[in-house]
Amino acid sequence: MQSLSDLRSFLDTPRKIVLFGHRNPDGDAIGSTLGLKRYLTPLGHEVKIIVPSELPSFLNFLDGVEDVMVFDTDAEECKTSMTAADLFILMDFNSLERIDKAGEFVATLPDTPRVLIDHHLEPEENIAQVIVSEPSASSTCELVYTTIKTMGDADKVTPHIAEPLMVGILTDTGGFSYATNAQLFRVVGELFEVGVDNEKLQTAIFNSMTEKQLRILGHCLANRMEIIPEHNAGLITLTKRDYEQFDIRRGDTEGIVNYLLRIQGVDLAAFITEQPNITKLSLRSRGDISVQKMAAEYFKGGGHKNASGGYSHSGLRSTVSRFREALEAGIPVG
Ligand SMILES: [Mn+2]
To answer: 139 CA to middle of ligand 1, Å?
Structure first.
């Protein structure tokens, strides 16, 4: 299999297909896999979705999320489905490392053809035989739609498929705040024509915090935020103690880093948290500033120009110092 038309003919026969989304799956990882599953299933394929770790609860409104398999908690069942599969489709990530142990198991099945659909920069070499990689795309969901169209099946896109695709577009663009371009709005226009309940989705995605999450946000902004005006930067840090005190769970701090960019004059934001074994960083920036470069150079990470992540094995304090060093060294542009 070498091209989308090969994939098209491969799909003429009913297949067992596993779709993969990345660790800490977000709206785009789940929206794109669920959207593609909803397209493939009526064509007669048996489709499973596997992600390494649990889904955030705000996505529970989408039906079918309960069938998403989590490798961390269900390794054996995931391996059985992977062994039986005729095709793997890797979605919204660019390196097998992003799916951890599931990726290691994928590597043990070299005869299963792989397709990549993703919008992250520079996909890992040999990650798949067919690669749909568009870093200029807003989201993998946008690419799922354009891929279905390229395969000549635009008329098969139903509101049931459009809905999860809109979820990933909305979450990856922060409700059309960034990563947008004319092509995206054309795609969104077409999805609206298919039928999308925008108001329902906006509410489900952006007004769905729990009381606890809002209080954690309050704590971060009132007590844990620091502004570095000479570098137009800001940071928020959370200690292990904060995690205990506020009972912070996965997903509870989602999006907090973006609040720093609401401050006039702040163009680069860091959210630095003390995890059980590592110190984790989420980085955001505006315009030409590339946090992707900073993450790659200083924090073993990567992602997108304006949204990246990384980690460090040193503690919170020295990670914060390293972040300051990175700022002193000059704001990376790209
Ligand atoms: Mn994405």
So the answer is: 5
| Half-sphere exposure at residue 153, Cβ-oriented, CA atoms within 13 angstroms | 20
The stretches of the chain forming alpha helices (DSSP H) are 4-10, 27-40, 75-84, 100-107, 140-150, 159-172, 182-194, 198-206, 211-223, 240-245, 256-260, 291-298, 316-328
Q: Are strands 302-303 and 279-285 parallel, antiparallel or unpaired?
A: unpaired
CA–centroid distance, residue 211 to ligand 1 (Å):
27
Ligand 1: distance of its center to the CA of 278 in Å? 24
Q: Name the pairing type of β-strands 307-312 and 279-285.
A: antiparallel
Q: What is the pLDDT of residue 311?
A: 97
Residue 117 Cα, ligand 1 centroid: separation in angstroms?
10
- Assess whether pLDDT exceeds 90 at residue 42: yes
User: In this structure, are residues 295 and 309 in contact, taking their beta carbons and an 8 Å threshold?
Assistant: yes
Q: What is the CA radius of gyration of the chain?
A: 20
Residues 121 and 306: their CA atoms lie apart, in Å, by 12
User: How far separated are the first and last CA of the chain, in Å rounded?
Assistant: 35
Q: What is the pTM of this model?
A: 0.84
72 C-alpha to ligand 1 centroid (Å): 21
β-pair type (46-51, 16-20): parallel
| 140 pLDDT tier (thresholds 50, 70, 90) | very high
What does each C-alpha distance from 50 to 26, 36, 47, 123 come to in angstroms? Answer: 13, 13, 10, 20
Domains of the chain (ranges plus CATH)?
Answer: 4-206 (3.90.1640.10), 211-328 (3.10.310.30)
CA 138 to centroid of ligand 1, rounded, Å:
7
Do residues 304 and 292 make contact, with C-beta atoms less than 8 angstroms apart? yes
**Cα 265 off chain centre by:** 27
Does residue 42 contact residue 69 with C-beta atoms inside 8 Å?
no
pLDDT at 332 over 90: no
Q: How far from 172 is each of 20, 49, 177, 267, CA to CA, in Å?
A: 18, 20, 9, 19
